Amino acid sequence: MATIKDVAKLAGVSPSTISKYMNGGNVREENAEAIRSAIVALDYRVNPFARNLKTQRSRSIGVLLPDITAPFFGNVMTALDKVLREHGYHSLISCYGSNHGLERDNLRFLISTGVDGLIYMPENLSVEEFFELTANCSIPTVQIDRSIQGLPCDTVLSDNADAAHAAITRLAAQGHKRIAIITGPKVVFSAKERLVGYLRALSDLGILYDDQLVISGQNDFATGYRGFEDLMQLSDRPTAVFTTNYDITIGFITAARERGLLIPQDIAVFGFDCLDICTMMKPPLPVVHQPEQEIGQLAARYLIERLTGFDGPPRTTRLCSSIEPKESV
Amino acid sequence: MATIKDVAKLAGVSPSTISKYMNGGNVREENAEAIRSAIVALDYRVNPFARNLKTQRSRSIGVLLPDITAPFFGNVMTALDKVLREHGYHSLISCYGSNHGLERDNLRFLISTGVDGLIYMPENLSVEEFFELTANCSIPTVQIDRSIQGLPCDTVLSDNADAAHAAITRLAAQGHKRIAIITGPKVVFSAKERLVGYLRALSDLGILYDDQLVISGQNDFATGYRGFEDLMQLSDRPTAVFTTNYDITIGFITAARERGLLIPQDIAVFGFDCLDICTMMKPPLPVVHQPEQEIGQLAARYLIERLTGFDGPPRTTRLCSSIEPKESV
DNA sequence: TTGAAAGCGCTACCAG
DNA sequence: CTGGTAGCGCTTTCAA
Question: pLDDT, tens digit, for every residue of A264-305?
């Protein structure tokens, strides 16, 4: 592998000139020409390790996610990546599959890889563990979608509880009194918040809480699918169900349709995420739509600000979800 | 940030001893003790840039994908990552969103980041571009799921054409004669192969080809959804449809159910990917199931072999998909 | 088992 | 605009 010295020798200039040329500085045209052909001749590429060592930066941002597959993450990532890119950064994704050991290990790895910043969707780490792994948070970090309680770093969330509250309220306005909820693990931040919104709405609406109507499983298809079956076995069935995640929603609908139930005539469903698919259904399925794009953009902005010297206290922003379609059907 | 020298000074030994300690070498217990406490006191971490510069390795593998969201990728990634991890490597994912510019740019970036190897699912790059970006393929690369024609590197594919052939054959055995296909962009390797299998099956079965029954769009929900509507408008409708990707399948089914059509009574559907969801339906939806786990594992093994010195000619392996459920329903 | 010293390849300073 | 030079922080001989 050719080094900068080889190129310098062949082009008849000094390494510093090559370096300047490579980094967009001004070089006499005649030298630039010689450098160009030397680079081609030797098939020279800068050694990223050496450059990073010198500059102590990599221009890369680590993104630590629980699950690569959820459409929510995909949409957030697209917006995030776009903004980062505009500022000369690239994102590198690491995925821990909702596995505590991997969450630790991948976080450690991302840090050790020399990323300049971190976008982090936590699941199961304590503040102490995070500090230990990151050397006291010296690396700029933005949490998204979830939050480790007490971790002093910028955080971008959506208004899970309020959105859930609004969803339940709308169902109630349509006359539903027995409203079930199928949600993710109670330990996961966002699932917890959505459940809180549900409970608060019941209380505000004067609807009696019935724990048979609360199903907490995983954030997956099977939970939605089995949730349907469990609810149908109740003697006093719900007339409406709030499914608090995309996979759960799809699982539930699949099961309901297989049983020949019409939505919303036989059972009303209020979903979460994946606006494009749900509005495409007939009739459109009402959903809580998180501002995925805005979350990604804001997280990227916060990170860029930290990366460029901003040193204010940690900011936590909750972005508003919307209910779609806007009007009750 | 503390350096190895600081630690050495505080512990009263030389930097080389620290280095040896850090890398698991033998150090007198008394020194080890001093080193440990110095590390804690200074909160020392090795500088990854310096280490990588010296060793010229990063122990990381770049994974370049078109789309982060597809369940197929998620399953392949899980298996891949597991094997890599067992060999001391970590995977770093970069996603180009089926965008040609980003495919180039992200590939360049991954290389420049110093990954030791590359797992690549290509879409739109020529051999020349790839060579140009990677400096003549000096970096060990394994292609998965798709292949740039003529690129001399290890490749792990599934038997798209044969699987499609088998799917169509089974539909025909059930008595279907008008069988439609909804597939991804004709330029995408895997979509092309699946279409080829479809055509070959028709020909083998003596079924006349009708271009009204071939819909080529994107690999997404909307294509499946609209595909249904288009097919329903034909005067001579198909009795069966082969949907060659997960999102297309879901989109198609959603549309069909909204129109009140029963599957398979009113229209038979043969899907692709996502075994767990399709078999959960009642009746189970027949699907082509790609060996996601095996693909991930084999790709990882191939890469590890290259990384550890194997220097044979490029290998291309096609792994067999299965049809699920095994028996016709 | 330990330490001295020589770089890995690059950038950035400063003098010319 | 150009080049000499001094490291960035680490690993790795090699000799002690």
Answer: 999 999 999 988 778 777 788 999 999 999 999 999 999 999
Q: What pLDDT sits at residue B135?
A: 67
- CATH code: domain B59-159+292-324 is 3.40.50.2300
What 8-state DSSP symbol labels residue B321? P
Q: Would you give the end-to-end CA distance of chain A in angstroms?
A: 66
Mean pLDDT score across all residues of chain B: 92
Tell me the nearest-neighbour CA distance from B133 into chain A, angstroms: 10
C-alpha B327/C-alpha B329 separation (Å) is 6
The shortest CB-CB distance from A135 to any of B43, B53, B94 is to: B43
CATH 3.40.50.2300 fits B160-289, yes or no: yes
Is the minimum CB–CB distance between B252 and chain A shorter than 8 Å? no
CA distance A214 to B275: 28
Cα of A223 to nearest chain B Cα, Å: 12
Residues of A in contact with B222 (CB under 8 A): 276, 280
Q: What is the three-class DSSP state of A60? A: strand
pLDDT, position A328: 64
Looking at the predicted structure, is the pLDDT value of residue B258 above 90? no
3-state DSSP assignment of residue B303: helix
Cβ distance A318 to A157 under 8 Å? yes
- Which residues, numbered 22 to 41 in chain A, qualify as contacts with chain B under a Cβ-Cβ cut-off of 8 Å? none
pLDDT for res B298: 98
Instruction: Return residue ranges of chain B for CATH 3.40.50.2300.
Output: 59-159+292-324, 160-289
